[in-house]
Amino acid sequence: MTVLYAMDMLGTAVFAVSGALMAARKRYDIFGFIVVAMAPAIGGGTVRDLALGALPVFWVKDANYLLVTVAVASATFFLARFLERYMTALLVADAFGLALFAVVGAEKALVLGVEPLIAVAMGTITGCGGGILRDVLCREEPLILRRDIYATAALLGAGLFVGLEHVTHDRTMALAAGFLGALLLRLIAIRRNLSLPVYTDRKSP
Amino acid sequence: MTVLYAMDMLGTAVFAVSGALMAARKRYDIFGFIVVAMAPAIGGGTVRDLALGALPVFWVKDANYLLVTVAVASATFFLARFLERYMTALLVADAFGLALFAVVGAEKALVLGVEPLIAVAMGTITGCGGGILRDVLCREEPLILRRDIYATAALLGAGLFVGLEHVTHDRTMALAAGFLGALLLRLIAIRRNLSLPVYTDRKSP
Amino acid sequence: MTVLYAMDMLGTAVFAVSGALMAARKRYDIFGFIVVAMAPAIGGGTVRDLALGALPVFWVKDANYLLVTVAVASATFFLARFLERYMTALLVADAFGLALFAVVGAEKALVLGVEPLIAVAMGTITGCGGGILRDVLCREEPLILRRDIYATAALLGAGLFVGLEHVTHDRTMALAAGFLGALLLRLIAIRRNLSLPVYTDRKSP
User: Fold this and answer.
1) What's the pLDDT band for A133 if we cut at 50, 70, 90?
2) How far, in Å, CA of C174 to CA of B34, rounded?
3) Going by fewer Cβ within 10 Å, which terminus of chain C is more open, N or C?
4) Rounded distance between C-alpha atoms, residue B154 and residue B40, angstroms
């Protein structure tokens, strides 16, 4: 449990950096950094907890999530200019957060007794929902809607976890498999620049 | 009850098409279709359930809503190019969904024991809220804020239902009257191109 | 308590005006005025109640909040052109609403038994969250993310209240001190045109 908790905090920190870096691009003040960092770091899990009725939401129950987010966003305000050279490392860290949040979100839903399909949806929402909030807040087109194998990775991870848990009843193994599946797919997609086909109509070339 | 349930699914499907067609215009991938379809199909009812504290939200309790939304959005991804010629049919179907969601939303609020005014607000939110979410997600100006007799129709339907139910205590009749009132007003507005006056200041011509 | 309730209604009305004036700038219809007014007037408190699990949300429990918002938004639709000359008065009124919502939001969280840090966050969210919703809805860049000493004032007010309440256990005095602290900082910031530094990278001049 402590390993999972430490990983959860790490995922929160990584996603907070992704939000803070977008705030840097928008030239916000330190409050803007904190607000935009909160969207990916705690937004997906908040939507999950609200939909499931698991209230108060997780970051009200355990203030560490908010503390980590505020600390990381504040640090990024002063250090963002040095982070630009580590963009690849950040992409890998983001993949780590995505994979982790997808399985942790699905697991939390299962514990609350929802149907497997809903648990998969909750995992996907936990992994991706915060990024959509971040983009809406910053008036950017949510990239996830258009190009990347990002939601796909979250869906795969959540689906693997829920499916394996259903068949084997071995929660730890299912968590690991779902996490690794999502992480691998996302890393391969980054490495090979893979993306899903987008909709085109007849008039397009 | 089964008639109401079938109509509810139909309304969900129709609203999912409206979201998916906007995703088509934005050239999103299939995940984009699903996410944008979820906004109008289940977004208004989600806001209603959250505000009322009726948790978990309806689509967590009954996975059919999510299944219908995902199926319709996926089908639209492949078929959107053939739907363009049926735009009028879709407008009528959308009016049907709006009228239905408005009375169903108000009814759900009444069952939970809120004041009549709040029930009317909840019906209006259930009918229109999802469309606002869809437009915000796609970075479009929410048209409902500016031009159409759309929220007006939802308000009329929810108001008729709540008012008649209060006076006659005949829920079925009140549901039918509210539904037909909203549907008629919306269809007349589409047909005659009616709209509400917008705000203008002195300097405008 | 009745004084606090009257101030709460006044804060709601003032924030509703701020939303309705943005709707005027966007030339929305009367429904647009109401929807955009709801965002700042009841949006921040809604996010607070959802996160805390204090459901149904406050405006479902007490319809007066919604009535005041709808009445103010409708009145502004007809009177907005006359309000332009009172912009300074409106800024002061908005500062009043901000300070009040920040301490009231923190107080509500404390009553529900959350940690002091979370109570401060809830006060800040109650004060500022609605304005962010309003800007997202109207596709404006949330100004609060970039320039003003606005969230800072809410944070100061909520922090003062929670800190003093913790030390002195005198809730009334702590409420007054937090309210006055936030109001003063915001008024000074308006008067002197103070703002926080924004992020700049090396390439900037």
Assistant:
1) very high
2) 49
3) C
4) 14
DSSP B140: -
DSSP letter assigned to residue B199: P
* Residue in B31, B137, B139 closest to A196 by CB: B31
- Kindly give, in sequence order, each residue whose CB lies less than 8 Å from that of residue C19, ignoring residues fewer than 6 positions away: C33, C36, C37, C38, C39, C40, C41, C73, C134
Residue A194 has pLDDT above 80, yes or no: no
Put simply, whether B185 touches C (Cβ < 8 Å) is: no
Which residue of B60, B66, B82 is the best one to mutate when testing the A interface, meaning the one whose CB has the most A CBs within 10 A? B60
Which of the four pLDDT bands, split at 50, 70 and 90, describes residue A1? low
Strand ranges inside chain B, DSSP E: none
At residue B103 the predicted structure's pLDDT band, cuts being 50, 70 and 90, is very high
Contact at 8 Å (CB) between B139 and B148? no
A181 contacts A195 by C-beta, under 8 angstroms: no
Q: Exposure pattern of B133-150 as b/e (b: 16+ CB <10 Å)?
A: bbbbbbeebbebbbebbb
Task: Give A-chain residues touching B66 at CB under 8 angstroms.
Answer: 117-118, 121
pLDDT at position B81: 80
Chain C interface includes A56 (CB < 8 A): yes
Q: Chain B 100-119, CB below 8 Å of chain C: which residues?
A: 112, 114-115, 117-118
Distance separating alpha carbons of residues A35 and C85, to the nearest angstrom: 33
Nearest to B37 by CA among B53, B54, B56, B16: B16
Residue C32 CB neighbour total at 10 angstroms: 31
Lowest-pLDDT choice from B33-37, B201-205, C24-28, C170-174: B201-205
Segment B93-98 shows an average pLDDT of 89
Structure tokens at C77: 């639709």
A151, B30 contact by CB (below 8 A): no
This model of the complex carries an ipTM of 0.89
A87-111 vs A151-168: helix axis angle to the nearest 10? 40
CB hemisphere CA count around C172 (13 angstroms): 3
Which residues contact residue C180 at a Cβ distance below 8 angstroms, ignoring those fewer than 6 apart? C99
pTM across the whole model: 0.92
Nearest CA-CA distance, residue B146 and chain C, Å:
4
Contact B137 A139 (CB under 8 A): no
User: Which of B145-154, C73-82, C129-138, C153-162 has the lowest average pLDDT?
Assistant: B145-154
